[in-house]
Design a protein that fits this description.
Helices cover about 10% and strands about 45% of the residues. By secondary structure, the chain is mainly beta. The protein has one domain.
């Protein structure tokens, strides 16, 4: 089960050419850690609620995965009560590891100060995005050498497939800055919490996801208040781990929202009894 996508954007501060080169070399020297496909995905349709910190439901979500051979189409869409929408569709292959093929992420409406429309094609190394300035929207594209461990649209899979005995799992993510850039997501297990299912106690593993910008930009981000907040992901313990809750911001400096599974509630007399 995959849910909660991420949009990340950092400050667009210009740096000298030498600094930009050093940052590029730093990124290209990073070792990829593709997510091991320990628990392969199957077809499913899950229901989700997105809540504010005070418990108010602000959006209703659907997670729809379909599988054909070793390729998965995974869509996560949240429809907000104010008319906003957050819709991400990822295509990935699951062999020995998870490999992102394509991803498109759209955010628009009153809940998002800046709209997002980002498309990634890893085979072609093409990134396309729409940028809005002063009421004018332009479509831009860029060729990039995309790393093999890119997790756009697959963030929750890293928690579900966290390697046994590992202290950390680092993967890559394509963020918007306002131009595309690769950052690192550092997953670390951060303890356990008690949850209940039908009044029966269970344990949920808690993962902290820290976003590493890298280079000079990363060094000054905390000083300038531009360091993105960490994400928190919970997975159930057991034979097959599954994400049951995520907590984090969906856009830069955005509010912290919680996404959780939801079960259908029967309306009165809806069953005909």
């Amino acid at each position: 089960m995959r849910f909660i996508g991420c949009k990340l954007r950092f400050f667009s501060r210009r740096v000298p050419a030498a600094t930009a080169l050093a940052f590029f070399l730093l990124l290209t020297g990073m070792r990829a850690q593709p997510i091991p496909a320990t628990y392969k995905q199957g077809s499913l349709h899950g229901f989700l609620l997105l809540k504010s910190q005070d418990g108010k439901v602000i959006a209703v979500g659907d997670q729809i995965d379909t599988v054909r051979g070793d390729e998965v189409r995974s869509e996560l869409v949240f429809r907000f009560r104010d008319g906003s929408i957050d819709d991400e569709v990822a295509y990935f292959r699951q062999g020995g590891v998870f490999k992102l093929l394509r991803d498109r992420h759209v955010q628009k409406g009153p809940s998002f100060p800046q709209p997002l429309d980002l498309s990634i094609d890893t085979a072609k190394g093409e990134v396309t995005w729409r940028e809005t300035k002063n009421g004018k929207t332009d479509t831009k594209s860029k060729h990039m050498d995309l790393p093999a461990d890119l997790v756009n649209g697959m963030v929750a899979l890293a928690a579900e497939n966290f390697p046994a005995g590992a202290s950390e799992l680092k993967v890559s993510y394509l963020a918007v800055d306002p131009n595309p850039r690769i950052v690192q997501f550092s997953f670390k297990r951060d303890g356990e919490d008690r949850v209940e299912v039908g009044g029966v106690a269970r344990q949920a593993a808690r993962f902290d996801v820290h976003i590493e910008i890298g280079g000079v930009a990363g060094a000054v981000a905390p000083v300038l208040g531009k360091q993105p907040a960490d994400l928190t992901i919970w997975t159930t313990e057991g034979t097959v781990p599954v994400v049951v809750r995520t907590e984090g911001a969906l856009y830069p400096k955005g509010p912290i929202w919680n996404a959780e599974f939801a079960s259908p509630v029967w309306a009165e007399n809806s069953t005909g009894k």
